[in-house]
Amino acid sequence: MKWFKQLSIDRKLNYAVILLLSTALLFASAFIYINTYNTVDEIVEANSKEINKQIILNYENYFNDVRDLANYIELKTKEVEIANQESLHEIYSNVATLNSDTITISLVKMDGTIAATSKLNYSAYEDLTERYWFDRAIDNEEVYFFSTPHPQDVFVDSNEQVISVSKQIDYYEYSQKYSGVLLIELSTEQIDTLAKQTNLGENGHLIIISDKNQLIYSSTDKCQNSTCDSNVIARKIIIGGDFVSIDGTDMYVSINTIHGTRWRIATFINVDLIGSSKISIFFLLSTVLVVTIFISTLIASILTKQITRPLNKLKEHMTDIQHSDHLYKEVEVRGQKEVVILAAAYNEMIKEIRGLMNQLVDEQNEKRKTELIALQTQINPHFLYNTLDSIIWLSEQNDNEHVIEMVMALSRFFRISISRGKDIITIDKEIQHAKYYLKIQTIRYSNKFEYTVNVEESIKDKKVVKLILQPIIENAIHHGISTEFKGQIDISVYKKDGFIYFEVMNNGYGLTDEQIEEIYEKIQNDNHESIGLKNVVQRLKLYYGERSGIHIKSVLDESTTIQIYFPLEKG
Predict the structure, then answer these.
(1) 308-365 residue pLDDT tens
(2) How far apart are CA 78 and CA 76, in angstroms?
(3) How many C-beta atoms lie closer than 10 Å to residue 283's C-beta?
(4) Which of 190, 210, 230 is the last residue of a domain?
(5) Span 79-83, mean pLDDT?
(6) What is the DSSP string of 465-527?
(7) Rounded mean pLDDT of the chain?
(8) Domain-ending residue, one of 337, 356, 376
(9) What are residue 240's phi and psi, to 5 degrees?
(10) Does residue 493 lie in a domain region?
């Protein structure tokens, strides 16, 4: 370690930064990769099960509605004498009309004939006791039986596929109690509609199978019979989930039962991309590690040279005056030779510097106050914090497209805000600055508003005081955009009668005349703290004089328009 002690400050800093940063990045990259590799399958499994549960819930809600409808029909059937077929037909017909999924509603006697139906001009098998839905209803009279799709048993001339819902119920004929089977034939369209409501990704699909392992429904044309790979896998797993391969594609299957129907739903989600994602993550982390170490080494080298070069120059300068006759208490310092020499010179100069430092501190405090005020006119910390929070949230949601859009818009927004220290920019740059701000806010507010920007082409290259449009747009968003309806912000920039106008209109609730007067009063009141409209107006008047200003007009429950203006030529 003796050789290390003899090194100069810049070399020690370089080696230390490279070693620490390389070690930290290496461990961090390894931890991230291992953790990601081990948890990615768990995440896929959890997400797949959650999607399956949601699909199950959708179907259970639908079948619960069907059972509620059937219970209502059963109740009404008991209240009406079967001899009064017209009343019972009217009840069945009305219920079938109100429910678009219902094809027919019928009451079947124990001899297989139809006692009543929702449509009088029906055709049916002579003996419906041969139908398996009839047998299942008789076998278990306490529950509703949901059949697999099949041709209609009522209106046998129709080719439409239906699902039969059947249950044994009681009815009365001439005050005598009898038993029969309530039959409701449902369209299969709702089964398909519910399946299409969930996006299962590329090649992802779902199938529905009965308790007898019969294929009821498939969302893919590749699985339209009971011998397809998906159906075979679903019959083996019964309930639960597992990673499987179908036609060379790695998938995760999750299977659950629809309550009250004995049907099972199997969802298949493509996980082929997970393997390639693991490889991509490895190469990405490796690239980031190498590039970061290289850049850090370069930056560390530049920074250490910038630090030690002036220190060495200051050491040489102070060495020349270290023998001056100054009374001070010596400070004993141990460390690098540059620091020891600098401390010796410091001890000689401390008394004179103390007075100068007091004065410098006062000046620096005033300077900081001025800088803070200047920064407040350009950057809204809350906007920056909220934007960064939004970026983090989008990143957690894997919405990389919007993350990239927000980061690019934020970078360009602040680049124009700074403008290399310039206070005057072109109107085109000012409009770009506003568009980046609107882009960020549009993503943040999940497209709660739309906007248009119209700029007269002939004035795009005209100069203007920067950052005068964004505060007005910010007011329009915060005070003019409602969560109850889609917001609209229209921005217009044009010239008229020797003046340039910036106009911002929103379709919010509007302002009363008293509210507008209050805003004007706050703008003109020097004692009122404000960094919004007041700041814009003050900077306009400072640069353009009294020929510039602001107009506010509003129509309640329709719109609010804020218009700032200044001379086309400064003069």
Answers:
(1) 655 554 454 445 445 444 444 455 556 566 666 666 666 666 656 556 556 665 665 4
(2) 5
(3) 9
(4) 190
(5) 76
(6) ESSSSHHHHHHHHHHH--SSS-EEEEEEEEEETTEEEEEEEE-SS---HHHHHHHHHHHH-TT
(7) 78
(8) 376
(9) 125, -150
(10) yes
247: amino acid identity, one letter: D
Joined together, the tokens standing for residue 512 give 């009363």
Q: 552-555: list long-range contacts, CB under 8 Å, 24+ apart.
A: 552/511, 552/516, 552/519, 552/520, 553/516, 554/510, 554/511, 554/512, 554/516, 555/510
The per-residue DSSP string of 503-517 comes to EEEE-SS---HHHHH
pLDDT at 278: 64
Rounded to 5°, the CA angle 132-135-141 comes to 135
Angle subtended by helix axes 381-396 and 427-444, to nearest 10: 50
Gap between the Cα atoms of 257 and 263, Å rounded: 6
Residue in this structure with the two tokens 């046998």, named with its chain if needed:
156
Instruction: Answer with the residue of higher pLDDT: 351 or 266.
Output: 266
Q: Which residues form the domain of 397?
A: 381-567
* pLDDT above 90: residue 260: no
Given a contact cutoff of 8 angstroms between Cβ atoms, the answer to whether 491 and 473 are in contact is: yes
> Does 47 fall in a domain?
no
CATH number at residue 538: 3.30.565.10
- Answer yes or no: do 390 and 533 share one domain: yes
Q: Are 402 and 387 in contact (CB under 8 A)?
A: no
Rounded-to-integer distance, Cα 352 and Cα 470, Å = 49
Which residue type occupies 492?
Answer: S
Residues 104 and 123 in one domain: yes
Residue 102 located in a structural domain: yes
Query: Are residues 355 and 393 both part of a single domain?
Result: no
**Structural domain total, the chain:** 3
- pTM for the structure as a whole: 0.45
pLDDT in tens, 187-219: 888 888 887 777 777 778 888 888 777 888 887
Q: Which two tokens stand for residue 143?
A: 């529950």
Burial class (CB in 10 A: 0-12, 13-18, 19+), 369: exposed
Helix (H, G, I), strand (E, B) or coil at 351: helix
93 contact partners, CB below 8 Å, separation of at least 6:
118, 119
| DSSP string computed for 55-105 | HHHHHHHHHHHHHHHHHHHHHHHHHSBTT-HHHHHHHHHHHHHH-TTEEEE
Return the closest-CA partner of residue 432 out of 456, 409, 457: 409
Mean pLDDT, residues 439-443: 89
**Stronger pLDDT, 420 or 207, i.e. the higher one:** 207
What b/e readout covers 12-24, taking b as 16+ CB neighbours within 10 angstroms? ebbeebeeebeee
Mean pLDDT within 447-451: 87
Q: Which one has a higher pLDDT value, 1 or 261?
A: 261
pLDDT of residue 503: 96
